[in-house]
């Protein structure tokens, strides 16, 4: 990649050159935390056009940058010092890598002469993060800074997005050089589909008797939602989605059969197991989606569309593989006939059979019903960020989404502690949106310090905290698969989360009775500024259905056979 | 199954270890490796690996790396599953 135009060089520090290069790449917000070796960069940051959000832990900064990248499709930027600052970013970097999120990570490093001497706060963050970055750099010359920064943004955002790390030794960031800025480099050339493969896919679909689409996160990442909806409407093929694909068509659309997989809907899992052609679009056959791989969609021919050649036939052999931008591929696939009415009717029948029910007797507040009511209370323009656990699956099952960017969830890495910093990143990226963080009593404590960030910057997010006094999903697995041998899942000595919120200067409300739900949702969504709603739920509530480990998707458990619920 | 790959890559810092790390982390046991300067600015690396996973998948995974210019999968001549270093790769993990 070559820079195209230069402006005249002037004598500047490496940090000043870095700041100018970030501004040149359109960066408006940075999430970070200062420290020893990154101090020259923070010195140069003063007076820049970018707003820095001081998070209260580097992991919070990295995860906020991740959510910012998801919402804007532009690289979120996070920054930390060397050593522990850098290692604290690692979970956030891995999170972005697993979910293909554009993030540029800037780390301070000890001066070049001290590298390799076990200097104070020295770690090899370049080496530590090699398996979880799309690419990474150690800057060795001041003159390289503009090129490296520009390349980093192009790589992070281009093709299949991902995190790119730039490690800055302190002698480089403090060093001086006469270096010209250069223009951001062009993004990688788009890949277009081969005509022969489009025809092959069209032919396979035209002959299909029971075609099904699995729509993944790649559709939102590539900004192909509209094209996808046009394709789905034109072909009439029923649509299932992965966790990250939720919202590519509205979840109340008649063509939507549900999310598939471990905690997917029965209709989706039955449709997948019975289809004869499976069109997988921007998804990667994750084990949580497929269940037992050898029995996944056993009679289906596979059409796989993805931008990443390395995803083709990685886990399931593709009969037709199209490596390309999704939009031109979807526009070019034109089957000669629509999906059959009888098959669509069968899918509709499964939808009816496996429709969620909210009338089961439950002790206290039933979280799935509350989430359904939350969606109904704010049908348009609500972004939900999730933590990880039972509540995350309940959100995926029971909230209504009309766009994939309304659902920000840690899919691949499953990062507890994601929800709160993700809400910060999403709200900063999209100030006009109502942003609700749905969390659990386990997850919230993983990054609870970010309540201080929420308060400091007046970030108007709403936190819905389900508290079952346990690590609920692990407890559920211990109940079902470890003979009820509960090991280290009890959180009955949780702090009073309402008081915790108040201590950070955030208003709160606590409920534990079903009749309080309606007013509480109203309070949460309409209160001015950040607010936390603490909802006590039954500690023994489980997520259903569940595909047990090692089983195919249609062998779902709908209740605990030992207790019938 | 043995696979041999010839990898043209950049000589920048980290390029070789990034490629070697990927090979092992993606489930391919490294049997032999040689690295040499190639003409121009890059390096050439030849690796021999063993895995139950296909060689062309490793080729595509290596080609994703920004530092890697070109990967050639050399057709296997000898396959000896008893060779030292040949170990089955299984997917293991929490809650699986």
Give a brief description.
The complex is a heterodimer of chains A (565) and B (96). With 565 residues, chain A is of the alpha/beta class.
User: What is Rg of chain B?
Assistant: 14 Å
How does CATH name the architecture of the largest domain in chain A? 3-Layer(aba) Sandwich
Q: Major β-sheet of chain B, in short?
A: 4 strands, antiparallel
CATH names the topology of chain B as Alpha-Beta Plaits
- Structural shape of chain B: globular
CATH top level of chain B?
A: Alpha Beta
**How many individual helices of chain B?**
2
Question: Could you characterize the architecture of this molecule?
Answer:
By secondary structure, chain A is an alpha/beta fold. Chain A folds into three domains: 10-179, 3-Layer(aba) Sandwich (Rossmann fold), CATH 3.40.50.970; 195-353, TPP-binding domain (Rossmann fold), CATH 3.40.50.1220; 367-536, Thiamin diphosphate (ThDP)-binding fold, Pyr/PP domains (Rossmann fold, 3-Layer(aba) Sandwich), CATH 3.40.50.970. Chain A has 21 helices and 20 strands. Chain A has a six-stranded parallel beta sheet, with helices on both faces. Chain A has a six-stranded parallel beta sheet with strand order 11-10-9-12-13-14, sandwiched between helices. The longest helix of chain A is centred in the N-terminal third of the chain and has 15 residues, at 58-72. Chain A starts with 9 loop residues before the first strand and ends in a 29-residue tail after the last strand. Chain B is α+β, with helices and mostly antiparallel strands and 96 residues long. Chain B has a single domain (2-74), classed as Alpha-Beta Plaits. Helices cover 21% and strands 35% of the residues of chain B. Chain B contains two helices and four strands; from the N terminus they run E-H-E-E-H-E. Chain B has helices at residues 15-25, 55-63; strands at 2-10, 29-37, 42-50, 68-74. Chain B has a four-stranded antiparallel beta sheet, covered by helices on one side. In chain B, a hairpin with a 4-residue loop joins strand 2 (29-37) and strand 3 (42-50). The A-B interface holds A 126-127, 130-131, 134-136, 138, 140, 155, 287, 308-310, 312-314, 477, 549-550 and B 13-14, 17-18, 21-22, 25, 54, 57, 60-61, 63-67, 91, 95-96.
